[in-house]
Design brief:
The protein is an alpha+beta fold and 44 residues long. Helix content is 41%, strand content 27%. The protein has one domain (3-40). A two-stranded antiparallel ribbon has the order 1-2. β1 (25-30) and β2 form a beta hairpin.
Length: 44
């Protein structure tokens, strides 16, 4: 398994764990002039 395959496998496992956690997620978007945040609930 090379470095890219390892990274992709690790990323996939992390996404699976986040999806199974049923926790709210916070996403922050920054630009030069604004900052915004979104909260995602596990049910959509």
């Amino acid at each position: 398994m090379n470095k890219d395959e390892s990274r992709q496998r690790r990323a996939r496992q992390t996404r699976i764990r986040i999806a199974e956690a049923l926790a709210n997620r916070l996403t922050v978007i920054r630009s030069n002039s604004h900052i915004s945040a979104q909260v995602y609930s596990p049910c959509g």
